Amino acid sequence: MTTLTMKDEKRLDIIQRVYRSELTVTQAALVMGLSERQCYRVKARVNKAGVKGVVHGNRGRPCKRKIKDKTVRRVVELARGKYKGFNDHHLTEKLKEQESIELSREKVRRILRAEGIGSPKKRRGLKHRSRRERRAAEGMMLQVDGSPHDWLQGRGPRMCLIGGIDDATSKVTGGFFTQAESSWGYFTLFSEIFNAHGLPHSLYTDCHSVFWTDREPTVEEQLINHKPTTEVGRALEELGVTLILAHSPQAKGRIERLWNTFQDRLVSELRLAKAKTLEQAQAVLERYIPVHNRKFAKPARAEPAWGKLSTLQIQRALCFKQQRTVAQDNTITFEGTVLQIPKTSPFRSYANRRVQVHVLLDGAVEIFYKTEKIAAFDSKTTHTIGLYRTLDKKEGFRYGPISTRSTQPNRPT
To answer: Which residues pair with 367 in a beta bridge?
Structure first.
């Protein structure tokens, strides 16, 4: 029994009108949307096979390009097991790279939906927003932010990923896992980026208390007309980097979309690598960032605009600074520790002088009188480590070991 579609019935009716001489073959071809030669072929098939002549010869036959059932079952098995939670595009890449299964993203999507496997990403309704144009050159603006998230999905501690993305190219310039957003964390990030790439013209971030303060200026600050700043704000000011504060997540949408991608792809990569600690997660992140940049970075319209500065200048800005008055015996008291300023001349004393105490990211302490370094102590000598945040203080120092990356001393917890 031959089942005809509405299109088949229409063709059969037209061919029959040709046989009845109501239409010419040229007219019939025009009505059916075929060439005149093809119309003759259809007419010949109807003359030979009857009604079946209008049915396409491939109807009912399996497609030669159809994916084997074995491959389909393998894709579904991997999507529900090893690559559970991967989005369609990410899964397509993994199938090609790791499993030697080369399919299009659309084909993978159709297979998954047919098996009832939905997309892990929940789409929200669209809102009308005006997009800010990208900066013209790499290094003109750097967006930075922190993303607290259950990156290890319960296999380890909750962590915060602090990172930066170039506004012109969407290139991830640096990032690392830490336990919480802090001045120390951003100083470490800036040190990594500024030494590797250079100084950006401006920095775009949110209104986190690390970057700004609402405290009233002191009398000394009022006398010199100086606006109160945080340690991070002061460091960026010294380096000549303009700090721009965003008052909504949408304003710094580029890095917010980066976190959305990382919380999808990077979380899946961490799960695939079975990462359980901060150190293991950091190793996965360092492997993933170059891959991410190759896939998602955009070309800039102009030459890079990174500013150049020496490592020493960056180090002296990205540290924590406090002032102390030198005692009569040329010592200062700093965080409960008495530090002796070494004797450089029998005729020179720093008694009653105001000096600056710099705490570096590795925990070392340096003492400066104006622009001259008059003393230096390593972290083992002073037992002093970097700045961290507490609930009762905006900023404060503490003693004791903390966990860090392999190239740096311990981080604050």
So the answer is: 357, 375
Nearest to 296 by CA among 336, 255, 354, 245: 255
According to DSSP, residue 252 is labeled G
Return the closest-CA partner of residue 93 out of 114, 78, 80.
78
CA distance 218 to 49: 100
- On whether the pTM is more than 0.90, the answer is no
Report the relative pairing of strands 172-178 and 159-166 from DSSP bridges: antiparallel
pLDDT tens string 161-199: 999 999 999 999 999 999 999 999 999 999 999 999 999
Report the distance separating Cα 45 and Cα 223, nearest Å: 100
Alpha helices for 197-277 (secondary structure H)? 219-223, 231-239, 253-261, 267-272
**DSSP letters spanning 150-210:** -TTTTSS--EEEEEEEETTT--EEEEEEESS--HHHHHHHHHHHHHHT-B-SEEEE---TT
400: left (phi over 0), alpha (psi -120 to 50) or beta: left
Measured from the Cβ of residue 313, the count of other Cβ atoms closer than 10 Å reads: 14
Match 């600056």 to its residue by tokens.
356
- Look up residue 51 and give its two tokens: 């009604």
d(CA 312, CA 87): 44
Q: What is the DSSP string of 29-87?
A: HHHHT--HHHHHHHHHHHHHHGGGGGS-TTTTSPPTTPPPHHHHHHHHHHHHTTTTT--
Secondary structure tally for the chain: helices H, strands E: 14, 11
Q: Are 203 and 144 in contact (CB under 8 A)?
A: yes
User: How many residues make up the chain in this entry?
Assistant: 413
The encoded tokens of residue 4 equal 């005809």
Q: Quote the CA–CA distance of 25 and 14 in Å, as a whole number.
A: 9
Q: What is the DSSP letter of 388?
A: B
Judge whether 283 and 139 are in contact, CB under 8 Å: no
Q: In this structure, how many other beta carbons lie within 10 angstroms of the beta carbon of residue 175?
A: 25
> In 3D, which of 409, 412, 303, 329 has the Cα closest to residue 364?
409
pLDDT average, residue stretch 108-135: 82
